Amino acid sequence: MSHPNDFQPITIAPMEIEERSFAIIAQEFGAHDFTPEQFTVIQRIIHATADFDLGRSVAIHPQAIAAGIQAIRAGRPIIADVQMVQVGISKPRLSRFGSDVFVHISDSDVAEEAKATGVTRAIMAMRKAARTYKGGIYAIGNAPTALLELISMVKSGIAKPDLIVGVPVGFVSAAESKEELLKLDIPYITNRGRKGGSPVAVATINALSLLAVQSDQPAGEARV
């Protein structure tokens, strides 16, 4: 038997919870200069983290949203730095376009090469990805060394990603790696400072896949 003073949720309907959450985020975020598509990404990042300061720290290259949608709709791979990112990304939306999420940090050959050369597995995973895939979206939420290595390979012409989602979290090289990403003249989505993490990378990719699905849906069709 419930006590009369027990807290009761406003709603338990999943879609209604999400819609109310996004309405609250839009109201509390206030005026901004993001496009509607860019703000879809911002909203989902805030929804995943409940962190408005993190949301306001996001930087989106002018071509990033279009590049992300185009890559997903073309079935390009999503390359994650860690399994936490891979697991969190919505696979059904990606599968509509023949896209999938790959992560190589736990591959045996990556571990062996990392040990032999004395670098992190995250670095070796990025090197393997650059050898394996043409283009694609790189989603880095955990390892600053992965982002720095990817930036280095972009500069040298070894890697040519369609989009980099670079939002690693941490105290060592996380903020610095994102500042380096901001210097690249290719599509990116990142944020300034130490905050970030796998949930941010996941929310960003899920927002892009939602936009990719919505781009060929009749107006008013329900979300998936």
TrEMBL record:
<protein>
    <submittedName>
        <fullName>Precorrin-8X methylmutase</fullName>
    </submittedName>
</protein>
<dbReference type="GO" id="GO:0009236">
    <property type="term" value="P:cobalamin biosynthetic process"/>
</dbReference>
<keyword id="KW-0169">Cobalamin biosynthesis</keyword>
<keyword id="KW-0413">Isomerase</keyword>
<comment type="similarity">
    <text>Belongs to the CobH/CbiC family.</text>
</comment>
<feature type="domain" description="Cobalamin biosynthesis precorrin-8X methylmutase CobH/CbiC">
    <location>
        <begin position="16"/>
        <end position="209"/>
    </location>
</feature>
<comment type="pathway">
    <text>Cofactor biosynthesis; adenosylcobalamin biosynthesis.</text>
</comment>
<dbReference type="GO" id="GO:0016993">
    <property type="term" value="F:precorrin-8X methylmutase activity"/>
</dbReference>
<dbReference type="InterPro" id="IPR036588">
    <property type="entry name" value="CobH/CbiC_sf"/>
</dbReference>
<dbReference type="Pfam" id="PF02570">
    <property type="entry name" value="CbiC"/>
</dbReference>
<dbReference type="InterPro" id="IPR003722">
    <property type="entry name" value="Cbl_synth_CobH/CbiC"/>
</dbReference>
